[in-house]
Recover the amino acids of this structure.
């Protein structure tokens, strides 16, 4: 399968999840974790209306992926999200060693890629190893031209 088609398909699925979140009165964010070509975790945002105070779509998708994979390390995985993971979710990306993050829109001051807390780009935390590849899906738009390596 063409990798760009794969990214586009996964981002469409994230957008569906984001719509589901909005319909439930939550922040419109959808996220999923893809490992070896298949979804191992996905979630619609459950904040602020859900029971979990920090029910961010990315965190929920990563937690589901950990359960599905049976491992806290997701080194071959890609996280897709309609929004830039916040600092909390960026921490989860780094702890699980997710290799690639495909991002929809920026999250501003609390983002983990472009804010003053660029956890996704941090290369000074030994146990996290190499930072993930970050792809800004809407900005870098055209398939085949959307990759940015941060290292
Ligand atoms: Zn978050």
């Amino acid at each position: 399968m063409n990798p760009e088609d794969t990214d586009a398909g996964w981002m469409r699925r994230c957008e569906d999840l984001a719509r589901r979140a909005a319909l439930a009165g939550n922040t419109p964010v959808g996220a999923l974790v893809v490992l070896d070509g298949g979804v191992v975790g996905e979630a619609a945002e459950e904040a602020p209306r859900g029971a979990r105070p920090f029910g961010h779509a990315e965190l929920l998708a990563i937690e589901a992926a950990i359960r599905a994979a049976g491992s806290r390390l997701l080194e071959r995985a890609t996280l897709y999200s309609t929004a830039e993971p916040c600092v909390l979710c960026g921490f989860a990306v780094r702890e699980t060693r997710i290799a690639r993050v495909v991002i929809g829109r920026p999250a501003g001051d609390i983002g983990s890629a472009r804010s003053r807390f660029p956890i996704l780009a941090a290369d000074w935390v030994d146990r996290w190893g190499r930072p993930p590849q970050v792809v800004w899906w809407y900005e870098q738009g055209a398939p085949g031209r959307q990759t940015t390596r941060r290292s």
In short: Residues 56, 58-59, 85-86, 88-89 surround zinc ion (CB under 6 Å). Residues 144-151 have pLDDT under 50 and may be disordered.
